[in-house]
Amino acid sequence: MTDALAIATLIIYVILIQPVLYCLWKHGRHGLLGWLALQSFCLLRIIGNAVLVNAEATNTSNSHALLISNIGLSPLLLATLGFLHEARRARSPSIGRKLEWALVIQYHVTISIALILIIIGVVNLEGGTITATTSALLKAGAAILLVCWAALVFWVRVSMREQGKDTNATGYAPGTKLLYSVLVALPLVGIRLLYAVISLLLEVSGSSSDFTTSVAAKVCMSVVPEMIATIVFVLAGIVTRNMHKTVEGRNGRYGDVGAGVLLVERRK
Q1: How far is 86 from 236, CA to CA, in rounded Å?
Q2: Crossing angle (nearest 10°) for helices 224-239 and 172-205
Q3: Mean pLDDT to the nearest integer, 180-207
Q4: Any bridge partners for residue 247, and if so which?
Q5: CA nearest 168: which of 28, 97, 27, 262?
Q6: How far from 152 is each of 20, 60, 80, 177, CA to CA, in Å?
Q7: Which residues have a Cβ under 8 Å from the Cβ of 92 and sit 6 or more positions away?
Q8: DSSP of the chain, one letter per residue?
Q9: pLDDT-derived band of residue 111, with 50, 70 and 90 as boundaries?
Q10: pLDDT tens-place string over residues 70-81
Q11: Portion of the chain with pLDDT greater than 70, in percent
Q12: What's the pLDDT at 73?
């Protein structure tokens, strides 16, 4: 059953990575943060499931698959942040760029710290010895990821409350669609994150709970949520694929400037 699930997941992500590459090309540099991260996420899922299939076929340890699975959460969170950033810049071209980029960079640094802690913890965990240090590293990494997810929820809420700002911007409508995709995907990402945290905590505690080996739990809280979130982003990306193109107006010209759109009046 696990082998069949891994094969099915592998095939689905091989298919999904195609429209992700298309969206990366169409959104260009404005959507680089989100679409590169989502591409990395799909690649990690392909690699992780390929390793898992090979481990099942050769009856070897699947520790590498466990490590790749935990690493894969970071690109999904960063992709969500990237799409939120792209949506905010499209909806509000006048938004403070320095503050926005400072927050984005800080978020990336925080996720990187959590990733490093989890990688070290998982490597130690697979070594067969559960020490206090290993437990502390995994718990700290998991806690940081939860805080990062909560920060995204707060950021989205703030963005949704800015409905009345810059409604005349050419990117406002498509930017709003992209923002709604983030709103829809966030609970799904939260479910996937919760599954990862519970699994790690059970592994650290040495619990014999069936939760970590349950295929139903994995499908409902891991495979399906992150897959639906990816599909939601892909659909939103295709719908908004032309959001950064220059739009000619009767009284002026809209041109891409940085990550925003600026109205440039024609001089007569």
Answers
A1: 12
A2: 160
A3: 88
A4: 254
A5: 262
A6: 22, 38, 8, 17
A7: 162, 165, 166, 169, 260
A8: -HHHHHHHHHHHHHHHHHHHHHHHHHHGGGGHHHHHHHHHHHHHHHHHHHHHHHHHHHT---HHHHHHHHHTHHHHHHHHHHHHHHHHHHH-TTS-HHHHHHHHHHHHHHHHHHHHHHHHHHHHHHTT---HHHHHHHHHHHHHHHHHHHHHHHHHHHHHTTTTTTTTSTTHHHHHHHHHHHHHHHHHHHHHHHHHHHHHHHHHHT---GGGG-HHHHIIIIIHHHHHHHHHHHHHHHHTTTTTS-EE-SSEEEEEETTEEEEEEPP-
A9: very high
A10: 677 899 999 999
A11: 81
A12: 85
Q: Tell me how far apart the alpha carbons of residues 235 and 248 are, in angstroms, rounded to a whole number.
A: 26
Among 182, 167, 203, 227, smallest CA distance to 81 is for 182
Residue 63 clears pLDDT 60, i.e. is over it: no
17, 43 Cβ separation under 8 angstroms: yes
Q: How far apart are CA 63 and CA 215, in angstroms?
A: 17
Residue 258 confidence (pLDDT): 38
Strands 260-265 and 247-248: unpaired
**The two three-digit tokens of residue 67, written as one number:** 């490590």
- pLDDT-derived band at 107 (thresholds 50, 70, 90) equals very high
* Total residues found in the chain within this entry: 268
Whole-number pLDDT of residue 169: 64
Give the Cα separation of 151 and 157 in Å (integer): 10
Q: What's the pTM value of the predicted model, to 2 decimals?
A: 0.85
